[in-house]
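Usage

Read records sequentially. Each one opens with the input sequence:
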Amino acid sequence: MAADWGTVNFDWSAIMILILVWYVLLRIWENNGTLDRWNATRVFGVILMVRSKRGLKLLDKTASPRGFWRFYGEISLWVCVFSMLMVGILMVVAFITAILSPPQTDPPSASELVALPGINPVIPLGWGALAFIVALVIHEYGHGLQARAHGMRIRSFGLLQLGPLPLGAFAEPQYEELTNAPSRERMRMFAAGPSTNIFAAIICLMFLGGLASQFVATEDGVHVRGIVQDEGAYQAGLQPWDTIQFIDGQQISDVDAFYDAMEGYSANDTIALTVKHSDGQVETLNATLSDKYDYYLQLGWSKSNLESIGVEEGQPFLGVEGLSSGTAGIDRLAGPLSPRWDGNLAQKSVMAPLHTLSLMIVPFELQGVAMHPFEESLLEAEDNVFAQTLGTSGLLFFVNLFFWLLWVNILLGFTNLIPMVPFDGGHMFKDMLRGILNAVKKVGKKLKFWDINPMWIEHISSKASNISSFALLGMIVFILIIPYL
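and closes with the structure output:
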């Protein structure tokens, strides 16, 4: 079994006391010169900004093929511009949806609004902290590489900390060189951080695909994730996570075998299910099949829709949901890169980025884990040297590692692409506005229609950027507080 680096339950009064103690320590260290010796400063009262020159020499060596990194920066810029526009559109859609259709569910707790490992219930302390540190480092290293590739010097790297918790990281360029750099180069520098996170997430998905090929199911059969109330499976006593091994003595090796077996039955037939419960007990249950056609009519489907999907009167319906094979847990994470996923290379290339984004909902569905413990128990290492050397627990360790690295990199990358200052997306948006206004100026000057003053361009781009930032901040605050109203 994989290590369980789970969520810690915190008392908010204890948290406030710890923050107060941290604030007192920072004031003491600030007054006695300790922060100066650490090359650190206190910001926003309780945030420690620690600077370091470590890694700068390695950064210079890594950035030496400047042509390559400038090309990388151009690719990063296009990826981030597209992603930033999508993020902005989604935020506007979410805002409009919140106005027109306010959420009816219970509002999230305070801990669910804080994206801190161990405090947020869907981000485990161990895996979350490790993944955040790695993601922050590669994010800022991406910024640093682009700065050096375009001749801008980096003064220091650093971390923003609240006690032992890393809240952020930074690469601190020479301010004058950054502000005086051409707009395109500056945009590449801002885009490099989020894009490096996005590319890292894709690489993590590739590793998950490779790991998926190292697992096999411990035994044949299909397990069910949900039971439809009052249908045949429910009345027979089938439970979630039970494994169906035989139907009337016919072995059910996988999902296809289950559907093949069901084709031999009709509504109102009674079948004998040999099932293995999650506690290991094997039992034979008698289930009476209902009519799939009637079931979907009751759900509100129209007869024409049922005909279009091939559902006819008299077809059998057992009343189970989420039928899955023994390797479903790892296959769900690897998605199109799983060896058991049907599709050609072109389809995999198209689906991989979309699947990467879809994995963001997994911790919310499974309450902070990458894979349900029952699905983990159905896996064992493949019979080859690599898999047997790591063993099942070793393979599951790396599955959790790469999943959380993927998850946090996507979270960090797309959060930084929100088109509002101080996020990278906000700085890119400001430079984009400046570039558009400069292009308008050139066209007007060429046609002798107008000539825009450069100071006016700077004023308008800054003003528009500030207005959009405040507008987006208002949308975010509204989306967060509407469930409480």
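Summary fields computed downstream for this record:
- The first strand starts at residue 40 and ends at 43.
- Residues 1-10 have pLDDT under 50 and may be disordered.
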